[in-house]
Design goal:
Number of helices: 11
Helix content: 40-55%
Largest sheet: 6 strands, mixed
Distance between the termini: 65 Å
Strand order of the largest sheet: 5-6-7-3-8-9
Order of helices and strands: EEEHEEHHHHEHEHEEHHHH
Length: about 350
């Protein structure tokens, strides 16, 4: 019966170039960095974060959590050496090399420069053939090396910059939303590269699956500081939702201001100041509905794959269902990340 089955054609897949994240040649003695009652900010006397008491070692994989505006990017700038501590102690190994990727780098690319121009500036001593070979290893082939940055896709620019920041084998990689422009296959390639990388990692991302598969410890940016978080990503999601609900309850309990005393000519009524949470609330509802639809689709495919009749008929149907299930799982992961980001944004507005 097996011999009589028709052959199943393998689905054609485009090759996805791996990310090259070389590990540091010589490990440094711990700690790489230590913070003792440190504070950091942009204006003297007005710290964004304070009371920082943290330590980072070479084998640490840190996931940095927090709502938008909680100070995650400020913390990353300080660790990267782009922002000095205002007070307290910030000690770092003088030999520490940091690779820092963030979204502003993509926006700051000269639209007229090509990947080859950028690599000529970074590797002035290398031969032209060596530069082209390196770009090809990064997934930028002959048709892309002389394409201007303005004409590269967001994923191609992100791929170029991610490989550039890791090119010198840093001891620490700080990745701020590295997957925003990457497709599913490129995200998987980045995950594989991070698992092979032997330095320290600080990861800031709304990509829940990447956070769960890379980070082995979590830090939380909240209430003007960063501290270790005792829990997992699910615990953090519940915490965000509960804080948002508590903020809503607090607003509901706030008494209305007493009316001003009557005067001969009362001033015109002023509209009550209210946080503009309507759009954010609707986004939470929309992403929650999308998450429910994705979960229902996944359950439907699982039921079909669990049915023995699926495999006794057309074998190509089973292969199609398997592929569809992978796509449905990816859609559910993306929907969960979008929902969590929407809830964080709503809490930030209410706060």
């Amino acid at each position: 019966m097996i011999a009589r089955l028709p052959p199943v054609s393998a689905s054609a897949r485009e090759h996805t170039a791996p990310f090259l994240l070389p590990s540091p040649d010589k490990p440094l003695a711990p700690p790489l960095l230590r913070l003792e009652n440190a504070a950091v900010g942009y204006e003297p006397g007005r710290p964004v974060l304070k009371g920082l008491n943290l330590r980072l070692d070479l084998d640490d994989r840190i996931g940095l959590l927090g709502v938008n505006g909680a100070g995650k990017s400020t913390f990353a700038r300080m660790v990267a050496g782009d922002l000095a501590a205002q007070s307290g102690e910030l000690w770092r190994d003088r030999r520490l090399k940091v690779g820092w990727f963030h979204q502003h780098q993509i926006e700051a690319l000269d639209p007229e420069e090509t990947p080859l121009d950028i690599l000529r500036r970074r590797l002035p001593e290398a031969s032209e053939a060596a530069r082209r070979s390196r770009l090809a290893q990064w997934g930028l082939g002959v048709d892309k090396v002389e394409t201007t940055a303005a004409n590269l896709s967001g994923g191609e620019r992100a791929r170029l910059l991610l490989n550039l920041v890791a090119m010198e084998a840093p001891h620490l990689l700080i990745l701020d939303e590295p997957t925003n422009h990457l497709d599913i296959d490129s995200r998987r390639a980045l995950l594989d590269a991070l698992n092979d990388y032997e330095g320290a990692v600080i990861l800031i991302t709304h990509d829940r699956s990447l956070m769960e598969l890379v980070a082995d410890r979590l830090w939380l940016a909240e209430d003007g500081t960063v501290r270790p978080f005792d829990g997992d990503v699910d615990d953090y999601a519940r915490r965000v939702v509960e804080r948002a609900r508590q903020a809503a309850r607090d607003v509901a309990k706030t008494p209305e201001p007493s009316p001003p005393p009557a005067v001969a000519e009362p001033p015109p009524a002023q509209p009550r100041t209210k946080a503009p949470t309507g759009n954010a609330r609707r986004r939470v509802e929309a992403t929650e509905a999308a998450m429910e639809r994705a979960a229902a689709r996944l359950a439907e495919l699982d039921a079909a794959l669990a049915d023995p009749a699926t495999f006794s008929g057309d074998p190509r149907r089973a292969a199609e269902l398997g592929k569809a299930r992978s796509e449905a799982q990816a859609a559910l992961d993306a929907a969960e990340s979008a929902w969590l980001e929407a809830v964080e944004a709503l809490e930030a507005l209410r706060a």
